Amino acid sequence: MSTASNEPVVTSYALAPAKNITVGGISYAYRELGPKEDIPVIFFVHLAATLDNWDPRIVDPIAEKRHVITFDQRGVGASTGTVPRTIEEAADHAYEFITALGYDKVDIFSFSMGGMIAQDLVVKHPDLVRRLVLTGTGPRGGKDMDKVVGVTYLDLVRSILTRSDIKEFLFFNRDDRGKRAAKAFVARLSERTVDRDTSISLKAFQTQLGAIQRYGRSAPSDLSKLTQPTLIANGDNDRMVPSVLSNDLHRRIAGSELVMYSDSGHGGIFQYHHQFAPVAVEFLTR
Question: pTM higher than 0.85, yes or no?
Answer without folding.
Answer: yes
